[in-house]
Design a protein that fits this description.
three-stranded antiparallel β-sheet, mainly alpha, elongated
């Protein structure tokens, strides 16, 4: 990205601040600033630095967002947004809340085509996980999904109502999504024969402590007014605790 400032008043103000401070160095607290921004090809040579006051540093980064265009402008919006960060001992200038909001809204977090390409190449170049790595990741996830966490998540979803607007957004997000033939084939194979839920023998424990063996779980749930998904989730996580709420309350899945 080239550093090509527009011939406007903001460019003049920017270089006026730089020239004034080079001619009249300030004493006390200062912040080092790249005259030609490093993200736009500026070097770390001594002549490309100037020591500014915290307020001048803030103003220069604000002016940079107004004196550039295209990808360079986008980069300067990120740089200005970073002005809020500070380390211990820094006396960063506190930005005006209105200006901060305006610039924050202009930040586009959508990755560019170049960034997407680099991310894709990095994933393709990554070596596949070993069996030990996969096993360790699986154990880590299982260890973090404790009964206490399950109960907490259950409490968070109690009484939750999905509005019609939210349902419409969810529906619109899935419309037009095309899946590859390979994806369709994998999903089909994962639900055939013995892998299909209807072909499994479910071992259930009723609220009256009676053990039942069921072959067609979906049909059984429909006939008995149970929520198939709540029981399926218990089976998937090998959680033998009774379902705490809903139509399946009191029912447990001992195995399937």
């Amino acid at each position: 990205m080239p550093f090509a400032p527009l011939p406007n008043k903001y460019t003049r103000w920017y270089f006026n601040i730089i020239s004034k401070r080079i001619a009249n160095p300030v004493e006390g607290y200062t912040e080092r600033h790249h005259i030609h921004p490093e993200s736009l090809g500026g070097s770390n040579a001594k002549e490309n630095f100037v020591d500014l006051t915290a307020r001048e540093h803030y103003l220069c980064h604000l002016l940079l967002t107004k004196m550039l265009t295209g990808a360079a402008k986008k980069s300067m919006h990120y740089a200005f947004y970073s002005m809020q960060r500070k380390k211990e001992g820094m006396e960063r200038y506190v930005p005006n809340s209105h200006i901060y909001e305006i610039v924050r809204k202009k930040i586009d977090r959508t990755p560019s085509d170049e960034t997407r390409k680099r991310m894709s190449e990095a994933q393709l170049a990554r070596a596949p996980f070993s069996e030990e790595q996969c096993r360790n990741m699986s154990l880590g996830v299982k260890a973090s999904y404790t009964p206490e966490l399950r109960q907490l998540r259950s409490e968070q979803f109690k009484g939750r109502v999905v509005t019609a607007e939210t349902r419409a957004k969810q529906s619109a997000a899935k419309k037009g999504v095309k899946r590859s033939e390979e994806s369709r084939k994998k999903q089909s194979e994962s639900t055939r024969g013995e892998k299909h839920h209807a072909a499994r023998c479910w071992v259930l424990l009723t609220p009256e402590n009676e053990i039942l063996r069921v072959m067609n779980m979906t049909e059984f749930c429909e006939q008995n007014g149970l929520n198939y998904f709540s029981l399926r989730n218990r089976a998937y996580h090998k959680d033998q605790r009774p379902v705490s709420r809903g139509p399946s309350k009191g029912w447990s899945v001992l195995g399937y």
